[in-house]
Write a structure and sequence with these properties.
7-stranded mixed beta sheet, 9 strands, 2 domains, alpha/beta, Rossmann fold
Length: 344
Amino acid sequence: MATARSSRGSSKRNASGRLPKIVSLFSGAGGLDHGFKSVGFELSAAFDISSAAIETHKRNFPGSAAIAGDLIELGPKGVSSIVNEALPRGSRIGIIGGPPCQGFSRANTTATASDPRNQLPKLYIDIVRELKRYFVVEFVVFENVLGMRDKKHSAAYQNLLTGLRELGFDITEKELCALDFGVPQTRKRLVLSGMRSDLRIQSVRPRRRKGHLTVRDAIGALPEPKFFSRNLTERDIPHHPNHWTMNPVSPRFQKRSAAHIGRCFKQLSWHKPSPTIAFGHREIYVHPSGKRRLSIFEAMLLQGFPKTFVLAGNLSEQVEQVSNAVPPPLAKSLAAAIKHSLGE
């Protein structure tokens, strides 16, 4: 069993050498992972149930172990076994991730406290507990929708806070909006950061970042995307492998903005930030021109992904990845704040 250090001074001296390695749970496309990597953290292992998301992770984060599997089936011991293969016992690690949020989402009008997905925060705690047996867990990060704090989910939320505190972490609760971190999107999320209690670290407060403020800032200069065809390959898409979208077959696209009302045909404005970028497997927002839906690449840029990032999978898998991701610039500010707290 790894032995935790008892003084902040000792931690700071060690932290100045090498940062803790990252274990990413429910990693998705890796938006949160990208933020931590961009400030110097090394990714050691990532887990997600989606094989397409793991293919994305392997493509963009070579060198880390990326595992496609159901964390419920793997369980804490299965996760621990894989991490033990990737890292020496006693290593300093940080655990990051956000379970699927549909069970807590306010957009899900049928959400109930009994939704099976609402048990995933408990699984997160159980995995942290198991990894603490073999590693020094310096910090944890948990991301989810604001609805997790609603009254009907209060028991699950309080159990999460209590569980993390009982594992020895000081928790900072934050409501963060992507727009405050250079991402042209009014996407608000709940982020918990937990630092080892014996480090006596003050609250982790990410600094705001300047960047794009409107849809035009992010995607206004892009060429037109390719439209889907049965034999479409990456070689057929010259600007970026993800700059493609479905053919605009609905008659509403011929009427332009006049018919773009309601949830399924909401049209973005050039002069405003985007709302949360997508809301279903194929329900991605309508381009400001009114002639088509956004391309996957346009949605990625509105999420703050770098232009070099590439998503794998079919349309539904790519939309799911980009819509569930933590905006990388927000993740970068969070990671930088944690790095600073560790003495770097």
